[in-house]
Design goal:
By secondary structure, this protein is an alpha+beta fold. It has 11 helices and 26 strands. The protein is 23% helix and 34% strand. Strands 17, 18, 20, 21, 22, 23, 24, 25 and 26 form a 9-stranded mixed beta sheet that branches. Strands 9, 10, 11, 12, 13, 14, 15 and 16 form an 8-stranded mixed beta sheet that branches. Strands 1, 2, 3, 4, 5, 6 and 7 form a 7-stranded mixed beta sheet that branches. Helix 1 packs parallel to helix 8. The chain is globular.
Length: 644
């Protein structure tokens, strides 16, 4: 065996392992998408032949039994009965492949919006610790373990399950394993029939998947803020926006006209246009030049000044094409399944319901190594460069993992573990106070604020969850650093419904960073901007917010300012923290519109956003906190041909 043959064998094994991890995640996303359509048999078919589902105290084994259980449990809240709703989102994956590449485990957040259209509406949520197995060449669910955490009728609001304290669910991962989603392989690589050119095309598909995922997620953030010019920039000249049940608009002017159905460009006072996108599946076509996506959109909408607030549950799908080195949207399709006013909810079917039959079918991404389109290779690919490119694709999964770990650890008040996923010289903001530099200072701030970390057997009467969803990840050329934007989707639960706590809240992690440190992905910088909207009461939700009286003093900052002062207070950061609580100027509170910052330019046009901050927030004031001061590259912030 030649040295090059051995390298190709090892590269083929490593490509397959990254493909496997992604198929595992798409398997669970497909579960959520099928659930929205009431496809119980298809959901059961995602299980291994002897697969098991543990839902709370109930245990069901085998595909037929699982399908029957799902059907029975949903009843008329199946998403297919006219006016019914069964939108289940399963997101924030923390996934780990086994050393032999034949099994995997993942932790997820889960929430279901349920209604029968005949008077019943509920929200149920929990945590999942799932196991997967490679069976007959396809990844399947071996064990779906759902831990119920909070639930309740929509009319009255949710509480902890049974009104009791919630335990900490033991994780399947250690601190270091969070940053190593694909571990070192066990044993030597098997011989492969793939050529270097074959592997180059498969790696290109992985990179394309990352680019298209970023494109669709970035589009979602622009839509949230009604940044119509930036959305139009993402489309081809002959782009299409289709809203099922409404119509279709073509061309750049048509795309803008479709967007302006939601109002003029830019958010006004009291406007909420948040449309969190969950469970996005990306299917890159064999030619590597086109792709399709499909996900679940949950619209959280308001015009507070006119007394309006509501929900919209939809399927979002799109097609994208590659133009040179840049991916663009060719078609964006929205299939609204149900709309409802917030105060009335969806118990009686909402204000408009199309039903599951209107939705496009789910995408089949099982077996991520189908034959690729044949092509003429001008030269034999450089396998060293292929390994570098694969490391960039693998970085996307590493960053997504450690991002999820951050959310899970702070939900459970596990402060030593949270600090352990921060790089040694990393930095982190604490809400309404400022930034702490270095792992020990970050841990010290958490302990000073919360006074202790919870023991593993603790029961919690209340939890403020930190779903970190809709990631936009830009990886450096060398695959050792990355920037990350995620949404803070924040439901809060308690043993009783509590005004100002129970309900939905929102924030943004606009320019987090991560690095590969000693072979483990860790967070370099964590920035939280919040809140963008709040729910003062359950009954009124985010639409019940009122402005603070004119001339009222700013709300106080964090008590950390007194008991454990930050290394970089928010007030030292000038314009960057203007309007945020604890920052500079007059605090803006919902229904006011808080500024939104971006760490990247438009991924197609290179348009620079009004508020642009490409490095970590502290780098401008403290240059030693920049990635570049520690030997890392600052990842790209836009399309290859554009240097902002």
């Amino acid at each position: 065996m030649t040295g090059r043959t051995r390298v190709i064998d090892e590269l083929a094994r490593d490509v397959a392992r990254v493909e496997s991890l992604r198929e595992v995640k798409d398997l669970q996303r497909t579960w959520a998408q099928l659930s929205q359509l009431g496809e119980w048999t298809a959901m059961a078919d995602l299980f291994a032949a002897d697969g098991t589902m543990r839902w709370g105290d109930e245990v069901v084994q085998g595909r037929a039994a699982i399908a029957a259980w799902l059907t029975r449990r949903a009843g008329a809240m199946d998403g297919r009965t006219p006016g019914s709703l069964h939108t289940e989102v399963v997101d924030q994956p923390l996934a780990n492949l086994s050393a032999d590449g034949r099994t995997a485990r993942a932790r997820w957040q889960q929430m279901a919006f349920l209604g029968d259209g005949a008077g019943q509406a509920r929200i149920e949520a929990g945590l999942q610790e799932d196991e997967y197995v490679l069976e007959d060449g396809r990844w399947r669910i071996a064990l779906l373990r759902h831990v119920r955490q909070y639930e309740g009728d929509y009319a009255t609001g949710w509480t902890n399950v049974d009104g009791a304290g919630l335990p900490i669910v033991p994780p399947h991962f250690t601190v270091d394993e969070t940053g190593v989603p694909v571990p070192p392989p066990a044993g030597p690589a098997s011989r492969t029939g793939a050529s270097a050119a074959d592997l180059a095309r498969r790696i290109d598909r992985l990179e394309a998947e990352d680019a298209v995922r970023n494109l669709q997620h970035a589009c979602g953030y622009y839509v949230d803020r009604k940044m119509w010019t930036d959305v139009v920039d993402l489309f081809t000249d002959d782009g299409v926006v289709r809203i099922d049940g409404v119509g279709e608009c073509t061309g750049r002017d048509g795309v803008r006209a479709a967007l302006e159905r939601m109002g003029a460009e830019g958010l006004r006072h009291g406007e909420l246009n948040d449309r969190p996108l969950f469970d996005l599946v990306v299917q890159v076509q064999p030619d590597g030049r086109s792709a399709r996506t499909r996900g679940i959109e949950v619209g959280m909408l308001a015009d507070v000044d006119h007394g309006a607030a509501g929900w919209e549950f939809s399927v979002l799908s799109s097609s994208a094409v590659r133009d040179g080195d840049v991916w663009k949207l060719r078609e964006l399709r929205l299939t609204p399944l149900l709309r409802a006013d917030y105060d009335k909810g969806w118990a009686s079917g909402g204000t408009w319901a199309q039903g599951a039959d209107a939705a496009p079918p789910v995408l089949d991404v099982a077996g991520r190594t189908p034959p690729v389109a044949a092509g003429t290779d001008a030269a034999d690919p450089d396998v060293t460069d292929l390994a570098r490119r694969l490391s960039r694709a693998r970085a996307f999964d590493g960053v997504e993992n450690v991002s999820a770990a951050y959310g899970f650890y702070i939900d459970d008040l596990q402060w030593p573990q949270m600090a352990g996923i921060i790089a040694e010289h990393g930095n982190k903001s604490s809400p309404f106070a400022g930034y702490y530099l270095g792992r020990q200072r970050i841990l010290g701030a958490a302990l000073a604020f919360y006074r202790r970390a919870l023991p593993p057997d603790a029961l919690r009467s209340r939890i403020s969850f930190h779903w970190r969803t809709q990631p936009v990840v830009h990886v450096s050329h060398d695959g050792r650093s990355a920037t990350l934007r995620t949404r803070l989707f924040q439901p809060r639960t308690q043993d009783v419904v509590t005004p100002g706590f129970t309900g939905f809240f929102s924030g943004m992690y606009p320019n987090d960073q991560a690095v590969l440190e000693d072979g483990v992905w860790r967070l370099w910088s964590v920035t939280i901007d919040e809140p963008y909207f709040e729910s003062p009461t359950w009954a009124g939700g985010w639409g019940s917010a009122v402005d603070r009286p004119a001339g009222a003093p700013n709300p106080p900052g964090s008590r950390l300012l007194e008991v454990f002062p930050p290394d970089v207070p928010l007030t030292d950061l000038g314009e960057r923290e203007e309007g945020f609580r604890g920052g500079t100027g007059t605090t803006v509170e919902w229904p006011g519109i808080v500024p939104m910052w971006f760490a990247y330019v438009n991924p197609v046009s290179g348009r620079v956003p009004e508020r642009y901050w490409p490095d970590c927030v502290t780098a401008q004031l403290r240059p030693e906190t920049s990635l570049t001061a520690h030997g890392y590259e600052l990842p790209p912030t836009g399309p290859p041909a554009v240097t902002p």
